[in-house]
Design a protein that fits this description.
With about 80 residues, the chain is α/β, with parallel strands linked by helices. Helix content is about 30%, strand content about 25%.
Length: about 80
């Protein structure tokens, strides 16, 4: 079984961010992130829920699986629905 860490956008992970990155580099965890977390972490899976976020940031690029709950956004950006 592989452990997973879900990363949010709040400040609570700040003190442990380097440790989480170390766990990821060692292959000990999968990282799931939302919204802009892909900018700071090497995610395995990215999930977004707010269509307004896409109006502001546009399509997310990166070598990770991308998911969204909005079918139109998924079709437009090539995300998993």
């Amino acid at each position: 079984m592989t452990a997973a860490i879900i990363i949010g956008t709040g400040p609570s992970l700040t003190q442990d961010a380097d440790y989480v990155r170390e766990l990821k580099r060692a292959g000990r965890v999968m990282l799931f992130g939302i919204n802009n977390t892909f900018e700071d972490f090497d995610l395995d899976v990215w999930i977004a829920c707010d269509p307004k976020w896409h109006n502001h940031y546009g399509k997310v690029e990166g070598d990770f699986t991308k998911w969204h709950w909005d079918e139109d956004i998924c079709a437009q950006h090539g995300y998993n629905y």
